[in-house]
């Protein structure tokens, strides 16, 4: 008589567990959030804070945690305030903010293309933003606002060209990637021509900025970029709903009430803006937007579709960790963070190709 009971217990133990949800209410608004996703987000947030505090502590002078926290108080010494608040904090905070921006942009474009390679750096939007800033530098523009305007305009024009060339009875993801790679190659050639034909000062400025670096970053450009990024972040719930609907296919999304083409266009504009904000301050930083959404999807409990918020958190951790490596990997030298992310991205691509090859 006990055997059937054992069988039933085994079946229950082997069956997949249903995800648990919490309902959050703020006035008339309410939202259901998976407990597993909430725990994952909390862990990523803690990792980001640990990296932030580590970046504030390390340097030519290693400061204990007490002095780091004390530097933000009114009673802090002038030296601690200058080192932590004015020199180290802008770079450390920028790595978190810009990593989140790249993660969001990567999630949007990978959702639009339904392809793991559909990120802004592969499609060519980073290159377009770089072209916009190069034109600003060529015509004598200086300062963050000029660079930001050039990056946004360059990114949007590039996105518009790719969108129009790839559009054929709707926007097809694979076609968008192929057209984007072709446009990116042409823009890269044009960028090289601008640098070669420009004077030495232009070439040096373009080379340093084009490496993708957070060196020497101060609060003013970060506050401008962070403010715009915060406004875009308010749309994350709307973005998540559109991303989830589009991943089911155009026909299914239409049945669910999603305006497919207008939603795709809105996601392209938002994704370009997030990429351009980063490019205007740091130069083009590759592979964060490529890897963050895929990592976020794999660490999500129960899998599921691409998650914009999860991609933002993973991008935040990736760029902050890469910048920490860039600062302290080689003693007495600071490597551009773009060089570190390229190495990490190359290893990721090799792993991805090996994994897909074994599946085939």
TrEMBL record:
Cross-referenced SUPFAM superfamilies: ABC transporter involved in vitamin B12 uptake, BtuC
Keywords: Cell membrane, Membrane, Transmembrane, Transmembrane helix, Transport
Subcellular location field: Cell membrane
Superkingdom, natural source: Bacteria
Topology relative to the membrane: Multi-pass membrane protein
Primary location class: membrane
Pfam families assigned: FecCD
Keyword Cell membrane: yes
BP terms from Gene Ontology: siderophore-iron import into cell
Residues that span the membrane, as ranges: 35-58, 92-110, 122-139, 145-166, 173-196, 265-292, 304-326, 332-354
GO cellular component, as recorded: plasma membrane
Gene Ontology MF term list: transmembrane transporter activity
Record-linked InterPro entries: ABC_BtuC-like, ABC_transptr_permease_BtuC
Family in the record: Belongs to the binding-protein-dependent transport system permease family. FecCD subfamily.
Protein name (Swiss-Prot/TrEMBL): Iron chelate uptake ABC transporter family permease subunit
Classification of source organism: Bacteria, Bacillati, Actinomycetota, Actinomycetes, Micrococcales
């Amino acid at each position: 008589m006990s055997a059937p009971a054992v069988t039933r217990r085994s079946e229950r133990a082997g069956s997949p567990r249903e995800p648990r949800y919490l309902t959050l209410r703020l006035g008339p608004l309410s939202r259901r959030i998976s407990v597993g996703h909430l725990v994952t987000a909390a862990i990523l947030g803690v990792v980001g804070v640990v990296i932030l505090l580590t970046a504030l502590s390390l340097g030519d002078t290693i400061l204990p945690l007490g002095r780091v926290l004390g530097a933000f108080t009114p009673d802090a010494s002038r030296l601690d305030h200058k080192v932590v608040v004015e020199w180290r904090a802008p770079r450390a905070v920028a790595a978190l903010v810009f990593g989140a921006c790249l993660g969001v942009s990567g999630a949007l474009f990978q959702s639009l293309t339904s392809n793991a390679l559909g990120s802004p750096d592969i499609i060519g939007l980073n290159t377009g933003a770089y072209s916009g800033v190069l034109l600003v530098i060529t015509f004598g523009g200086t300062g963050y606002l000029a660079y930001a305007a050039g990056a946004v305009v360059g990114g949007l024009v590039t996105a518009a060209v790719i969108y129009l060339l790839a559009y054929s009875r709707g926007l097809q993801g694979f076609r968008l990637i192929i057209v984007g790679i072709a446009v990116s190659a042409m823009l890269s050639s044009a960028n090289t021509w601008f640098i070669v034909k420009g004077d030495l000062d232009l070439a040096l400025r373009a080379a340093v900025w084009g490496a993708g670096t957070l060196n020497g970053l101060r609060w003013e450009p970060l506050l401008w970029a962070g403010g715009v990024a915060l406004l875009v972040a308010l749309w994350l719930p709307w973005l998540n709903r559109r991303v989830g609907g589009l991943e089911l296919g155009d026909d299914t999304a239409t049945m669910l009430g999603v305006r497919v083409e207008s939603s795709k266009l809105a996601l392209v504009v938002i994704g370009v803006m997030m990429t351009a904000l980063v490019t205007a301050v740091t130069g083009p930083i590759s592979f964060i937007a490529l890897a963050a959404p895929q990592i976020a999807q794999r660490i999500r409990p129960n899998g599921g579709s691409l998650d914009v918020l999860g991609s933002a958190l993973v991008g935040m951790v990736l760029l902050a960790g890469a910048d920490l490596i860039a600062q302290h990997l080689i003693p007495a030298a600071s490597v551009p963070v773009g060089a570190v992310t390229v190495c990490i991205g190359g290893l990721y691509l090799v792993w991805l190709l090996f994994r897909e090859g074994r599946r085939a």
